[in-house]
Design goal:
Length: about 325
């Protein structure tokens, strides 16, 4: 697919338009009015120039964006010839339904993705003509720099539509992951679970928001760019996780009940990398390679953090770096 339309040209829509254009596609953006779309196109071009000057985009990105992204007079004009359409309007189902009706009437064949982060894909599909071509394609903010994208089919999404969206995402330099159409999908289920527990710790007087942020970003959060929670558990040892759950249950028996899928693996003697089996499979002979990668990755992350210095949240006010 080479002709892309993005409906909703705010910061998320604009960021996705940049991603697709820099991935080699022609992109048409649209919004409530032609004037808003034209204004956002100017913002996109200005941002791109700034990103190129800051070294965040490759040299020549400004010229590519100027050539490949255009603004349409209407939603219908934007989508009529598109092969893929990304809906990025505000997170209200009535707005999305009306927009998806307009999109699907104007173009009966294109694959349609929605950038919703919370609304059921099946419910959104009710407004789409030929809903088998519709799925969630959920970017994270800021879209140009966060690589992961959730791909969320509803029960009747055609496999061909999923494959086409996946190829577009990967071809644009992103990492696509398929997830089921469940409330919160994966990203927000995990993100809000962490936030909820963090608020509990503050309410209980265990630590301040500042100290909790420091712990998260400098301990387990430090690992997360390289390994997800299952890989981290396998490397720590699933039996160790079970012991920790037992300890947590002394005060929080329901909140930290041992997950059944953890107990089942331990029962089978699958304790993670030290036994060669856990949640993630890895050949025993590759464990030294894994350890070497882990150590190198963490050392490089520390170098990067030292180079960047603290964020404005953590740097004293008025200090100039």
């Amino acid at each position: 697919m080479t002709r892309i339309a993005v409906v909703g040209s705010g910061y998320m829509g604009g960021g996705m338009a940049q991603v697709f254009a820099l991935g080699g596609h022609d992109v048409v953006i649209s919004d409530v009015t032609a004037e808003i779309a034209a204004s956002n196109l100017e913002r996109i071009r200005t941002e791109t120039e700034q990103f190129e000057q800051q070294g965040l985009f490759a040299a020549g990105a400004t010229a590519v964006i100027a050539e490949r992204i255009t603004a349409a007079q209407s939603i219908e004009d934007a989508v009529v010839d598109a092969e893929f359409i990304e809906e990025a309007v505000p997170e209200r189902i009535e707005i999305k339904h009306e927009t998806l009706r307009r999109i699907s009437r104007a173009n009966p064949a294109a694959v349609i993705g929605s950038n919703t982060s919370t609304i059921s894909i099946a419910k959104l599909a009710e407004a789409v003509e030929h809903p088998e071509r519709f799925l969630g394609v959920h970017f994270s903010n800021p879209a140009p720099f966060v690589p992961g994208v959730e791909l969320i089919p509803h029960p009747t999404t055609a496999e061909s539509a999923i494959v086409a969206a996946e190829a577009l995402i990967v071809g644009s330099g992103k990492i696509g992951a398929r997830v089921k159409d469940a409330t919160g999908f994966v990203l927000n289920r995990l993100q809000y679970a962490l936030f909820h527990e963090a608020t509990q710790l503050v309410d209980e007087g265990v630590a301040t928001p500042e100290d909790i942020d420091a712990i998260v970003r400098s301990t387990f959060g430090f690992r997360l760019p390289f390994f997800g929670p299952f890989a981290i558990a396998d490397m720590a040892g699933l039996d160790v996780y079970a012991f920790c759950y037992a300890s947590l249950q002394s005060d929080f028996p329901e909140r930290f009940a041992t997950p059944a899928i953890l107990a089942e693996r331990i029962e089978r003697g699958e304790l993670g990398t030290k036994t060669g089996a856990g949640f993630r499979a890895i050949e025993p002979e590759r464990i030294p390679e894994l350890v070497a990668y882990r150590n190198r990755a963490y050392a490089k992350m520390k170098e990067l953090l030292d180079e960047l210095g603290p964020s404005p949240f953590d740097e004293p006010a008025g200090k100039v770096r």
